[in-house]
Write a structure and sequence with these properties.
The structure is a single chain. By secondary structure, the protein is an alpha/beta fold. Helix content is 50%, strand content 10%. The chain contains 28 helices and 17 strands. A seven-stranded mixed beta sheet has the order 7-3-2-1-15-16-17. The chain has a five-stranded mixed beta sheet with strand order 8-9-12-14-13, with no helix packed on it. A three-stranded antiparallel beta sheet has the order 4-5-6, with no helix packed on it.
Length: 649
């Protein structure tokens, strides 16, 4: 052993000071390698739909019902299984509802507690007792541990287990124990959760989703384009702020800003009312059918228009400041003939759908008025000062990134930018070009610099780059030729609105091209797959989410209600367990209340994507590779002890 290895082993000996302790850990780790791998769940494009997403976490994307079936088989009928499943999903709400229909509360607890223990025991079989114990709640850890280790064949302990349950019921602790058992089942049903981008925009409750993820036991997030623009807004980047506010108004979701994050939009509201007084804002109707009063709708429309105009101005300034972004073609305000109410794009004159633009100076169209400057300064201060928003963005930085390689899966939100011939697209990032994984890595570093760099100029570059990631042609999160926000609002001709997707989507069935992407990320093309979202899969039109013979899995199935008419379903989840990969296509959830009262689960059509021969063990996973390295180190430590190179404590 050389000196550096010996130094490392001396440090390792602090944790394992004897041959016996090191050997015991080797035995433990070797045993773990032979357990079945845990269940991984992949979801994307949740877009603020908290209730549907929360339900899928509670039911483990169907895994909880599977554990009930395994635990009870035909010994319970379907109605009894449904009652039990709903209790597990929503214990706090369901207990009171069930008990209101029971005459003997103690008898109900005596019946339901053993059933929950049986499901919990079934959900825990993939894990070591040590891992299960670490998941146990502090107040009931001893009780649950004893109940989980109950042997149905040990008659000598029957009275002991009955005494535990009787005492729990007699002391008034049964309700909380039911809740803790249900929460433990939630945790054991999903070993690892992967969110493949886009928690924000569209739906009403992204903040609740973020709170749920922050408290989740094992989760990672790959940033989506809608996430990155919120990150930019939190960093005070004006281009990102204008989008976030405008889009929230567009979907009737200003409450996200005000109620969820404490963003003060009162100065903006006053400005919008004054600047567009009497203006019908004909091109700025709201999307969907938000449950708002007429006054709230009118205000949201005016705010949307005010922010759209400010956005076009701010973006023009950003484009001039950042020529490397190559977005000059997105400056359009100077192409408007304000007297005629038309715009000339690529030599073609189009009539504007809304010609009332009182805050734009034709001689200097990208200059903000003093009132607009004041609105933006106050919004920036409010975004930066929102403790809750900053906490959520820190979670993105701690648990997230632009991509992740996990157990042979390349997780990314949208695409790896490609040229039409299938080669990796060279993308200019502040004067240097990058492709493939190197592009992802440099962009990730700049995003983190926006929040963590001590250099103000570097923070600004990172913040501006987040705005570019939202809409730049070479952005792996945007994956289109342009962001046609201006045209969608103001030009009726659909041809000029067209946003051309990156060649990745044209070549997604080309195995040679996809294999080239894997090689760029240092992955084996024979055993790898891409899991992505971003583009809703039109299931109702027969589109298959499984691409390139299973090498690409597109899992945007429309969690967002805004996309469900496009997809025909209400979201996908991809499930990876020890037996293979399975894709669940979900039907809409009526509501959380209906799930509790009517016992309506999310019904899903399960599709087998890939079955493995035998079962995938922990030893076959990335965690297994790490454990094998730990075992090798411990074996070297034992050798050092036995050769007298390191003394035992």
């Amino acid at each position: 052993m050389d000196a550096s290895e010996l130094k490392y082993l001396e440090l390792l000996s602090k944790s394992f000071p004897t041959v016996a302790k090191a050997s015991a850990e080797i035995v433990n780790l070797n045993a773990i390698l032979n357990l079945p791998k845990g269940t991984e769940i992949f979801a994307s494009d949740i877009h603020g739909e908290y209730e549907a997403f929360s339900h899928l976490l509670r039911n483990g994307s169907g895994n909880v019902r599977t554990k009930i079936e395994e635990a009870f088989g035909d010994s319970l009928d379907d109605e009894e299984k449904t009652h039990l499943a709903t209790l597990i999903y929503y214990p706090e709400q369901k207990i009171d509802l069930m008990l209101s229909q029971e005459e003997d509360e103690a008898a109900w607890y005596a019946d339901v507690l053993p059933k929950l223990v049986a499901v919990c025991r079934r959900a825990s079989v993939k894990y070591t007792r040590s891992k299960v114990r670490k998941a146990l709640p502090a107040d009931f850890g001893y009780i649950i541990d004893e109940l989980l280790t109950e042997s149905t064949h040990d008659e000598d302990k029957d009275a002991y287990y009955r005494a535990i349950l009787d005492a729990v019921i007699r002391t008034g602790s049964a309700r909380q124990l039911v809740i803790e058992l249900c929460l433990l089942i939630h945790r054991l049903a999903i070993d690892q959760l992967h969110i493949v981008g886009d928690i924000y925009d569209r739906g009403p409750y992204p903040d609740r989703i973020m709170d749920a993820l922050i408290g989740y036991h094992n989760v990672d997030v790959q940033w989506g384009n809608h996430d990155i623009v919120w990150m930019g807004a939190a960093a005070g980047q004006w281009g990102c702020i204008t989008h976030v506010v405008r889009n929230s108004a567009r979907y009737g979701n200003l409450s996200i800003l005000e109620d969820s994050y404490g963003i003060n939009i009162l100065p903006l509201a006053r400005f919008a009312i004054a600047a567009y007084e009497g203006d019908p804002c004909v091109a700025f109707g709201l999307k969907g059918n938000p449950q708002l009063s007429k006054e709230e709708i009118d205000l949201s429309i005016k705010i949307q228009k005010a922010m759209a105009v400010i956005q076009f101005k701010v973006e023009g300034q950003l484009i001039d400041e950042n020529p490397d972004f190559e977005l000059e073609h997105r400056k359009l305000l100077h192409l408007i003939d304000y007297d005629k109410g038309t715009i000339n794009i690529n030599g073609v004159e189009y009539e504007l759908m809304d010609k009332v633009l009182p805050t734009i100076d034709p001689a200097d169209p990208y200059r903000l008025t003093p009132e607009e400057e004041s609105v933006m300064a106050q919004l920036e201060q409010s975004f930066r000062g929102s403790e809750k928003l900053q906490r959520h963005m820190r979670f993105f930085l701690e648990k997230g990134g632009l991509y992740k390689v996990s157990n042979g899966s390349l997780l990314l939100h949208a695409c790896v930018p490609l040229n039409p011939d299938g080669s990796l697209k060279e993308v200019n990032v502040f004067g240097k070009t990058y492709t493939g994984m190197a592009l992802y890595d440099v962009l990730d570093r700049y995003v983190r610099a926006a929040f963590y760099s001590a250099d103000a100029a570097e923070r600004k570059r990172g913040a501006d780059l987040m705005w570019w990631l939202w809409q730049g042609e070479g952005s792996p999160l945007f994956a289109k030729s342009k962001m046609a926000t201006f045209e969608l609002y103001l030009v009726a001709d659909k041809a000029v609105r067209k946003e051309v997707k990156n060649s990745f989507y044209e070549l997604i069935e080309n195995e040679e091209v996809i294999d080239g992407i894997f090689r760029s990320f240092g992955m084996d093309p024979a055993t790898s797959r891409i899991v992505c979202g971003h583009v809703p899969v039109k299931v109702k039109n027969g589109e298959d989410p499984v691409k390139c013979g299973g090498k690409v899995l597109c899992i945007d199935g429309g969690f967002s209600r805004a996309y469900q008419t496009t997809t025909g379903i209400a979201g996908f989840t991809l499930i990876s367990n020890s037996r293979g990969f399975f894709l669940a296509a979900h039907e809409p959830l009526e509501s959380m209340t209906a799930a509790v009262v009517k016992e309506l689960d999310i019904h899903s059509q399960m599709r087998t994507v890939e079955l493995v021969k035998g079962r995938t063990l922990v030893g076959d996973t990335d965690i297994g590779a790490d454990l094998k390295c730990q075992i090798a180190d411990l074996e070297r430590l034992v050798e050092a002890y036995r050769r007298g190179l390191i003394p035992e404590a």
